[in-house]
Specification:
Chain lengths: 334, 398
């Protein structure tokens, strides 16, 4: 409200208080003793969390150190895993390869399906079922990975076995991906089941981001005569690009750390090969789950080094995803 | 606000019109065209789909049934029919409504297919677990242990009471460790915003990336390997608490952020010290959301297998003391039984999986009920209580 003006009746009393009202009254925030205690208590809680979490990182590094010192750079290039042998020979190369291949398979399946599902829920599904579909996705995200893993082992893999055998029979010889002596316990199947676990979380994040697309711009696109796909491709997808990338990366982080699907499905083999339909493979997480029981002093240290390597990768991916998701989307004006 | 270019245009369908709201002002003409509902289904749409489906089915039958000299799997029929359906449908729509509409319809079909692939797993997972589990789930599953059950006993013999007890105790302990810490941290992040806020938020975000097996390995190597505490329920709870802590912290912080700042300011303006404003105003307002955060954290860890695999030991006998001796829990029960080579043990694992699934669903539904109860209850209760308090305060001579 402006105080100047010819007919401003409100202006009359303001100038009187003028000179002193210029400088604001000093506000003193005094903390009582109880307040100080409260602040210290809460800060102590937060500090404990901070210390606890930092300790985990430090302990992992500390525990991994002997193994890293023993193996040096060959830790990244060696395929076999024999840290308790004489001489110790071990490396994370085969595990990392398996981790990345199964995660890549999972992401190739997850991302298109997740984007489609998010768009379907937001733009195509009738309003009445939209909420229930959203709940369903969240519910899927809550189902333990163990249940997905045993379901995959007993239902999905046998179901797909004839199809995979057929693909191998048809394409072997001229497509290295489809070369296989036996199918079933392959990195591809592990990735497939990991995809089932990664789809809900990815969908849930992407859906939330896409739902924030400015409604008036969507309606503008429709009002200009655009089809629904025109609206999606010109407004929603450009707006949600960062959300799609970020959500996919969070799903990738989960796919990389997934233990049970790989443990239950893969036939263990420490090797690097392009034949993803063939039995055999190992991931970092399943390697830890399988090897820890027999691990001696150096073996445990080597496992911690592998765990640390995995953690660093997932951490970097999560950090990147957080940066991408939190960045102001291109269309978010006003 | 002046917009000179809008007022000179008498034509309501002017493409330059800045304010679409003024376009319907064509009313005075008196002719209102019948309302078009672009999203509604017309019978021609259905006919187009049905026709395209029929055409693709017929073509598939011709290729596989008449032209190819060998038999193929039934699933190949479905795949080929779908692949043929897409171009046929596209041509049909393009003929009738143009290329743009055809593209739109094609994408609609593709998106719906993608969504189908996302929702199909849940139907099959839940259906399969229920089917396999119900075959062997008997009441004694909840009352017996595996103590006297041999590998050749029938799948319906024995039970998972020891695992269920273990799961409940470990979940309770993990919650008791992680929730107070997580809530305090969330209050710090959202209410105090002190110098630690940035690093705490950073490490909490980082921790959500911690693979669960690495959490188990960590606890295994600092607690069990140096014999500080042998494999037992509490050690498993520690590993679960590590996984739960960042989840609860981040969810609770988000909930606290939603509490309107006006409530805090009102409390402070009425003379409440900070701690009372948090304890009496902020936390009660966010109660429903906080409960949801806690329950979701519990749902996240109750099915975790990898960390407990390394930390609780696993056993077939009852052990109600989580602080000493090996303890079992439900995911571990399922995991060990399913890896057995005995058919009946594998069958028994599905009973465990069914119970585990039921527990998770229960927690999820609980979280939904608690979470969705929040706005209504808040709107109803807080003002009433505040009103009654002001009147009683006003009545009190002070």
């Amino acid at each position: 409200m402006r105080t100047t003006g010819p007919e401003g009746s409100v202006t009359s009393d303001v100038p009187e208080a003028g000179p002193r009202a210029e400088e604001p009254r000093k506000l003193e925030a005094r903390l009582t003793d109880a307040d100080r205690f409260y602040r210290a208590f809460v800060a102590a809680g937060a500090g404990t969390t901070l210390v606890l979490i930092t300790l985990i990182g430090l302990f992992l590094l500390n525990g991994a150190w002997p193994a890293l010192k023993t193996s040096g750079l060959s830790f990244l290039t060696t395929l076999t895993w024999g840290p308790d042998g004489e001489p110790p020979k071990f490396g994370v190369a085969a595990m990392m390869f398996g981790t990345f291949v199964s995660a890549a398979v999972a992401m190739l399946i997850t991302v298109p399906i997740a984007v489609c599902t998010a768009l379907f829920i937001n733009e195509y599904a009738p309003r009445a079922v939209r909420r229930s579909l959203t709940s369903l996705v969240d519910l899927m995200a809550a189902i333990p990975s163990l249940i997905f893993a045993i379901w995959g082992l007993f239902f999905l893999v046998p179901l797909l076995a004839p199809l995979e055998d057929w693909a191998v029979a048809q394409f072997h010889g001229w497509l290295p991906l489809a070369e296989a002596s036996a199918t079933g316990g392959s990195l591809f199947n592990a990735g497939l089941i990991i995809a089932c676990m990664a789809i809900p979380i990815t969908t849930s994040i992407i859906r939330e981001v896409l739902a924030q697309a400015p409604r008036h711009e969507c309606e503008g696109a429709l009002a200009l005569g655009g089809t629904r796909w025109g609206m999606i491709s010109s407004v929603i997808l450009p707006f949600g690009r960062s959300g799609i990338v970020g959500g996919s990366m969070l799903g990738l982080g989960r796919a990389l750390g997934e233990t049970l699907a790989a443990t239950l499905i893969l036939s263990i083999a420490f090797e690097i090969k392009p034949r993803i339909l063939e039995n055999g493979g190992i991931t970092v997480a399943s390697g830890i789950a399988i090897e820890f029981r027999d691990a001696q002093e150096l073996g445990l240290s080597a496992l911690m080094a592998a765990g640390l390597a995995l953690f660093l990768v997932t951490f970097a991916i999560n950090l990147l995803a957080a940066l991408v998701v939190n960045r102001k989307p291109a269309g978010a004006r006003a | 606000m002046t917009m000179p270019e809008t007022k000179v245009l008498p034509n309501p369908r002017a493409p330059e019109g800045r304010q679409p709201a003024s376009a319907p002002a064509a009313g005075p003409r008196g002719k209102v065209p019948p309302r078009r509902r672009p999203r509604a289904w017309r019978w021609t749409d259905l006919a187009e789909i049905a026709g395209a489906l029929g055409a693709s089915a017929a073509l598939t039958w011709m290729i596989f049934g008449r032209l190819l000299p060998f038999r193929v799997m039934p699933i190949a029929y479905v795949l080929l029919a779908y692949v043929l359906f897409l171009p046929i449908y596209w041509f049909v729509i393009r003929d009738g409504q143009g290329a743009t509409a055809a593209k739109d319809r094609l994408v609609t079909v593709l998106i719906a297919t993608g969504a189908l692939f996302a929702f199909a797993p849940i139907v099959f997972v839940v259906g399969y677990v229920v089917k396999r589990g119900a075959e062997v789930l008997r009441p004694n599953f909840f009352t017996e242990t595996m103590q006297i059950v041999g590998p050749l006993s029938k799948a319906t013999e024995g039970g998972a009471l020891h695992s269920i007890i273990g799961t409940l105790e470990q979940l309770a302990l993990a919650t008791a460790i992680a929730v107070p810490l997580g809530l305090l941290t969330a209050v710090y992040l959202s209410e105090i915003q002190g110098p630690l806020a940035r690093p705490v938020r950073l490490v909490a975000d980082a921790m959500t990336a911690l693979p669960s097996i690495v959490a188990g390995l960590f606890i295994f190597s600092i607690v069990i390997k140096p014999h500080i505490w042998l494999q037992s329920g509490i050690v498993g709870s520690l590993a679960l608490a590590i996984l739960m802590l960042p989840t609860v912290t981040i969810a609770a912080e988000q909930v606290l952020h939603v509490v309107p700042g006006g409530l805090r300011e009102a409390a402070l303006a009425l003379g409440a010290p900070y701690w009372r404003s948090v304890l009496m105003v902020v936390l009660p307002t966010a109660r429903a959301g906080l409960s949801t955060a806690v329950i979701l954290g519990m749902a996240r860890v109750v099915g975790e297998t990898a960390p407990v695999l390394m930390t609780t030991g696993g056993t077939t006998v009852m052990n109600v003391n989580p602080f000493s001796g090996h303890q079992d829990n439900l995911p571990l029960f399922v995991f060990t039984q399913i890896r057995s080579s005995q058919e009946n043990q594998v069958d028994r694992a599905w009973a465990g999986a069914l119970v585990l699934l039921a527990v998770v669903l229960l927690l999820f539904v609980l979280a939904r009920i608690v979470g969705s109860a929040s706005p209504g209850r808040r709107r109803l209760r807080v003002p009433r209580r505040r009103a009654s308090r002001t009147t009683s305060d006003g009545g009190n001579p002070s």
